Batch of 4 targets.
Target 1
Amino acid sequence: MEQADIFVEALNLTMFGMGFVFLFLTLLVFVTKLMSAIIRKLQARAINKYDSTTTLEQEIDEETKFVIEQAIKLHRGA
């Protein structure tokens, strides 16, 4: 009789544990899909923010360009 109770408790604990893991992993999948959708929307919004005709040289002013060139020369040892 006592052995049957232990077996039922073990079975109950196993089913509860497996159910909890299943629910947690299902929730994790949906949260990951939601985050992915949010990132895609933000990325699309950021891409549309910049005009495709704008080049890098138009975005950088002369002083910044000079500083970058000097840093590259200093790094290369020239």
Note: The CA atoms of residues 4 and 10 lie 10 Å apart.
Target 2
Amino acid sequence: MTPSDRVTRPDLPRRTRTRAPRALALVSLALVALAAVPIYVGERVASLQDQITETLQPALESAARLSLYQSRQMARLQSFLLTGDRTIRLRYNAAIAEEDSLYNDLGDLVRVMDLDVRERLARLSSESTRWRFGHLSVFDEIIGPEAGDTLWAQIQGEYEELQSATRELERVIKVEVDKGRRDTQWWRTMQTWIMIGLAILALGSLLVIARVSWRVRRLVTEAEKREDALRRTVEQRDEVVSIVSHDLRNPLGVVVGAADSLIELPLDREEREKQATIIARSASRMSRLIEDLLDVARIEAGAFVVRPSAEGPISVLEEVRDMFEVQADEAEVSLTVGPVSDVLVRMDHDRVVQALANLVDNALRFTPEGGMITLSGEALDEKTVSLSVSDTGVGLAQDALDNLFSRFWQAEGDKKGRAGLGLTIVKGVIEAHGGEVRVESDPGIGSTFHLVLHQA
């Protein structure tokens, strides 16, 4: 095979890419999100709300009660200093137990809070203990109004420091409460947006499901069409096998009969030449049919070879006209060569003649008496040339044009006993040259086949 040889390559089936796995993944994600996300967000919001109502808010209220307890204890100490009534100490001691209980409860509540809150409560508890211990010494040593202004100023100063520490504890607890409320509000807002997002995701999932369903239906429809086409191809193949068998059997029978006559009968020279001619014609017919089958096999296998060279189209067109001149006269159809451009075409002479001959043969079968078939050649542009076969035959409908170059396909009204390989070979020959076949046809008016080739 020379570098200039061209080989047709069959169309290989492309792997169909589908988005079904990604679509199913999206739908699965949407279903999981629709089930899990609202539950998680709802639990998160409920947890924050429970923390506020069961921990943060009670802690804030307890801190406020601490300040109140301190104020009451200070008032009791002041009453003792003014009156000297020792029964006040009993009430003071009883309040200490309540205050200790409040500190214990507050310690349990702030256990889940920030470290700064726990540290402030620990310092406040320690300061409160020292403060109360100092008061007990006052109850033991001072009786009534004998207490001096200096002692009272000291006690008042310690009380204000304790109150300041208590208010600071209350402030940091309130900061925790506000933070918890902000977090709760944030999660509620997120819950709203997440539900909107999930609603959009659900809608998207429905659209994806609809898309996948449509795609599946289309694939099923395409598969059914391919199955129908395959079934028709098999039926056409079986019919062609039957036709080929018949076409081979008839000339083969003629060959056998003529050969027997030559062998067994004492024939004169003229009769022997007649039988030999019959044998040669029948063998040629069988050879053409077999060669057509082999050409189709080569085209489909990607092994169809052409050897192009520079040649003028006029010689090719006139050769094809001469091949069918007698047949056209018998069919009472005008076969002419029309205008031909004076350009050189890059083509394999024998293969292009084969393609044009198949087109003319088809045109003769579909052109009625008195019709016209014209062979022509024109330059389409600076690079391409069109070799055309036009007829005034029955023309082709659109559905026929769609199947025109299919293997084994035959148009309605075609004579039986033909394999339907001619146009398949035409397309294979021209595509092997790097060209293309174009068809123009109008039912009842005629058809034109353009073989587009490259200029040399």
Note: Confidence is low (pLDDT under 50) at residues 1-16, 413-418.
Target 3
Amino acid sequence: MFEKIVAYLSEQLEIPAESITKDTTFESLGIDSLDTVEMVMDLEADLGVDLEMTEKVSTVGELVDFVESCLD
């Protein structure tokens, strides 16, 4: 899942995938809460699951953990 999210961010932000780690914050990437919601909606469509955001995620790792918990 980490690789999928990194690939998405890399493509959307036009930055090297290698520059994104699990500790990378969305703020450091210039992503605000509206962008995060849009990204989650794209992931929902891509994965065919409902991702009910109940809490704020601020790092790539937190988003990975959240998505993986929804897939279990």
Note: The chain has a mean pLDDT of 90.
Target 4
Amino acid sequence: MLLLTVTEFRNNISRYLKMALTERIALKSKDGVIELTPSKEIRVNPSPSNDQYFDNPHNIKETDKAMQELEDYHAGKVSAISLDELKSQLAL
């Protein structure tokens, strides 16, 4: 792990960001230590109360899928079926 001051990081930011993809880089400031963590995606918790349920990427995908289905329904892209039709389709 490489421990840097914020000033050193700022002076060579491009170099250290590239390094952070292959090794652990941490920044030491007066308020504590911050470790850089590479990721291929940005995860933002959409909950106003920062509910931990939304920290799980799977839960976010399921929520997004349900919202898209709801939007499709309201846009008329999906039609409603009766409970009997659903049971018939599911062979219940």
Note: The first strand starts at residue 2 and ends at 5.
